[in-house]
Automatic annotation (TrEMBL):
Signal peptide: none
Organism: Halorubrum rutilum
TM spans (from-to): 60-82, 94-113
Lineage: Archaea, Methanobacteriati, Methanobacteriota, Stenosarchaea group, Halobacteria
Annotated pathway: Cofactor biosynthesis; adenosylcobalamin biosynthesis
Protein known as: Probable cobalamin biosynthesis protein CobD
Alphabetical list of Pfam families matching this protein: CobD_Cbib
Gene Ontology cellular component terms for the protein in this record: plasma membrane
Main location class: membrane
Classification via HAMAP family: CobD_CbiB
Location of the protein in the cell: Cell membrane
Keywords of the record: Cell membrane, Cobalamin biosynthesis, Membrane, Transmembrane, Transmembrane helix
Function: Converts cobyric acid to cobinamide by the addition of aminopropanol on the F carboxylic group.
Amino acid sequence: MSLPATLGLPVVAPLAALALAVALDLAIGEPPARVHPVALFGSLVEPIDRSWSRPRSVGVAAAVGLPTVAAVIAGGTVWGAAALAPRLGVGARLLAVPVAGGLLFSTVSLRMLREVTAEVVALTETDPDAARESIRALVGRDTGDLSPGALRSAAVESAAENLADGFVAPLVGFAAGATVGLAVGGSEAVLPLALGVAGAAWAKAVNTLDSMLGYRSKPAGWASARLDDAVMFLPARATAGCLAVAAGSVGALSRARSWAREPGSPNSGWPMATAAAALDVRLAKPGHYALNPTAAAPSVADAERAVRLVGVAGGVAVAGTAGWLAAVAGVVAWS
């Protein structure tokens, strides 16, 4: 069998699903909240957020069980679509790819992140009070006394961090699952697709658990926070690389290294510090850290550049995911 033919069968389905998910994100932004799978998953997490006699045990069970449930449902839905397709008189991939693309779309968020960040940045110049209200969609800190420059700093920091959490991490999960499927699936095109979507759903579920439970004030959230720290190790650093490539400044990574460990999180400092270096601005959370401390706080123009930078870095992440999958398929084809 020729290499193009061998490559085409297993890898075309996850690549098509990836393209569809990105297209949907660009066109729509987010699924409606009432049917958003992440919102539905959040409703499963809410009952965990209460007092327990053995909170750590409950937290461990939730951290292990709930993301697994999300992954099984997502991957099983794709597999079920492929199994149903012949009964509808269509090929398995013709049904499984759009289902997988839709599910992957629900785990990634780039357009809304950029739109909310851009809105906050614009409001810092015209209506700082409204900016303090809008930025609550991005950050959890108290914004009541933040200056316009500090608000822009918080927006840029959050955009860089959420690029890792809300976009790159699901893509890494998708790539990891699809890689396993390509390695073990032979000519079966649906397995990489189903495992890829399962991986994306699992990564998104881990991050959602951490965002809801992973605080010192929530005893049941210890396991979720530690799991998220482990899962985000690679996506955070991959995001830093994407930001550096998008900025055309690989040297931003080496500059960021000295600041990346200042935030309390072992991971969030990497994309934030790289953004600070690439934009040559000071990103600071008062009383906690200052990244690129000798630079000025971001101006409106700097923050607008940050919004564009995040968009381009997202494109780099998509291209990297597609390139990785094609490379894996090539290795499998030659082996």
